[in-house]
C-alpha cells in the first residue's frame, strides 16, 4: 500500500511542478509582450512629434520647399481663386483647411497648381509647405514640382 501512496504523492508533486512552471512561463511571456507593446507605442509617439521626409526624421528647422519654389505657385485673391477653381472643376471651399478660418473675398490665397488645385491662405500654406511637401487637404506630393518649372 505504501507503494501506491508513494506513487500518488510523487504524481501530485509532478503535476504541481508542471503547473507552477506553466504559470511562471505565462507570466514571463505576458511581461515581455507588454514591454514590447509599450516600447513600440513610445517609438510611434516619438516619431509623430517630428516632421519627416520620406520616412526619415528631420530637424524642425529644415526647410523642405524653398521660397523660390513657393513663389512658383499662383498667388491670387480669393475672389479670383474661386473662378480658377470652378474652371478646374474643383468645389468651392469657404474655409482654409490649415487654419480653419473662413475666406474673405480680399484674402490672398495660393493655389497648388499644377498639383491638385486646392487653395489656402497664403501664409498658412507657405508655412505648411516649408515643412511638408504635400497638399494639406489631399496630401498630393508636391516635392517633385520643386525641380520642374510650374
From TrEMBL:
PROSITE patterns named among the record's database cross-references: ZF_RING_2
TM helices/strands, residue ranges: 12-36
Keyword entries, A-Z: Membrane, Metal-binding, Transmembrane, Transmembrane helix, Zinc, Zinc-finger
Gene3D superfamilies, A to Z: Zinc/RING finger domain, C3HC4 (zinc finger) (3.30.40.10)
Cited Pfam families: zf-RING_2
Signal peptide (UniProt feature, chain positions): none
Source superkingdom: Eukaryota
Domain annotation RING-type: ranges: 96-139
Keyword Metal-binding: yes
InterPro entries: ATL71-like, Znf_RING, Znf_RING/FYVE/PHD
Any one GO MF annotation of this record: zinc ion binding
Name of the protein: Putative RING-H2 finger protein ATL71
